[in-house]
């Protein structure tokens, strides 16, 4: 098994306005194998989003090491971290984070315009393939406001997949959806990820959603433990 992600001893604190320090992550150890689907659950405020921000190379931990696809990120410059993020990582957020003035196809194309440039024709083909994979091949020209919540999240899945990243990080991907739509969107996310040999780490407070992952980890008191039981 190759490793998609390995975190050792991640610590992160924030400084509060009164000058005190609030520890959020107190030594997180986490290892995810290639092709695995892992869910991280935890109570509100347990630090799930903070953890994803570290794992997604959007912020640096105060201490600890993090390897993505066997590349140790600890000593990388900001530019090298951005490159690794653009090439290897895809992101899905609870609120979809689509740009409202762009069509579905234009939103999905955005990651292809970062870093290494892809030719127009190749980009169009990748966008069409990605939107078809989430069942929206016929909605390429729709703008976000013309799409339902579930459809918008499917566009976001297509956007996360368009560069064929090795690892997708999803923060409450079904959090804004009703139960039935959440199941459908998760089906699509898990199928497309599996078809492309991509690893998925999703954060959720919903134990039913988490139960569909290969493995469930709980973030509690700033550390990870195996399993979902209280
Ligand atoms: N910049 C900050 N300044 C002060 N407190 C912060 C800051 N960032 C996060 N926190 C606090 O750290 C804790 C963890 O926040 P985080 O958003 O990571 O939790 P979460 O598990 O994702 O929560 P939720 O499930 O409610 O989204 C919370 O108590 C939050 O208020």
What does this structure look like?
- This protein is an alpha/beta fold and 230 residues long.
- It has a single domain (3-226), classed as 3-Layer(aba) Sandwich (Rossmann fold), CATH 3.40.50.300.
- Helices cover 32% and strands 28% of the residues.
- It has helices spanning 48-55, 78-88, 104-109, 120-133, 149-161, 179-195, 207-210, and strands at 3-15, 21-33, 37-41, 63-68, 71-72, 89-92, 167-171, 199-204, 215-220, 223-226.
- Strands 6-7-8-3-9-10 form a six-stranded mixed β-sheet, sandwiched between helices. A four-stranded antiparallel β-sheet has the order 2-1-4-5, with helices on one face.
- A hairpin with a 5-residue loop joins strand 1 and strand 2 (21-33).
- Helix 4 crosses helix 5 and helix 5 runs parallel beside helix 6 (179-195).
- The protein is globular, with a radius of gyration of 17 Å.
- The protein starts with a strand and ends with a strand.
- The model has no long low-confidence stretch (mean pLDDT 93).
- The site of adenosine-5'-triphosphate has 13 residues, from strand 2 and helix 1.
What are the defining features of this structure?
single chain; 230 residues; alpha/beta; Rossmann fold; 6-stranded mixed β-sheet; 4-stranded antiparallel β-sheet; 7 helices; globular; binds adenosine-5'-triphosphate
Tell me the major beta sheet.
6 strands, mixed
Q: What is the rounded Rg?
A: 17 Å
Helix fraction by DSSP (H/I, runs of at least 4): 25-40%
- Tally of distinct domains: 1
Structural class: alpha/beta
Which CATH architecture?
A: 3-Layer(aba) Sandwich
- In DSSP terms (H or I, runs of 4 or more residues), the helix count works out at 7
Beta strand %: 25-35%
Mean pLDDT: 93
Give the CATH superfamily.
P-loop containing nucleotide triphosphate hydrolases
């Amino acid at each position: 098994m190759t490793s998609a992600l390995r975190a050792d001893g991640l610590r992160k604190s924030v400084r509060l306005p009164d000058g005190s320090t609030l520890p959020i992550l107190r030594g997180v150890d986490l290892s995810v194998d290639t092709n695995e689907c892992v869910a991280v659950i935890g109570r509100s405020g347990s630090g799930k989003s903070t953890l994803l921000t570290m794992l997604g190379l959007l912020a640096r931990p105060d201490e600890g090491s993090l390897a993505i696809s066997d590349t140790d990120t600890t000593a990388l410059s900001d530019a090298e971290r951005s490159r690794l993020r653009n090439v290897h990582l895809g992101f899905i957020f609870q609120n979809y984070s689509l740009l409202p003035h762009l069509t579905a196809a234009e939103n999905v194309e955005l990651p292809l315009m970062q870093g290494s440039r892809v030719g127009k024709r190749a980009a169009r083909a990748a966008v069409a393939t990605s939107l078809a994979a989430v069942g929206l091949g016929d909605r390429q020209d729709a703008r976000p406001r013309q799409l339902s919540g579930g459809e918008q999240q499917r566009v976001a899945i297509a956007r996360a997949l368009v560069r064929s990243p090795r690892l997708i990080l999803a923060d409450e991907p079904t959090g804004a959806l009703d139960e039935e739509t959440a199941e459908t969107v998760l089906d699509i996310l898990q199928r497309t990820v599996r078809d492309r040999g991509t690893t998925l780490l999703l954060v959720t407070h919903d134990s039913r959603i988490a139960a569909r992952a290969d493995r469930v980890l709980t973030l509690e008191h700033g550390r990870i433990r195996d399993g979902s039981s209280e």
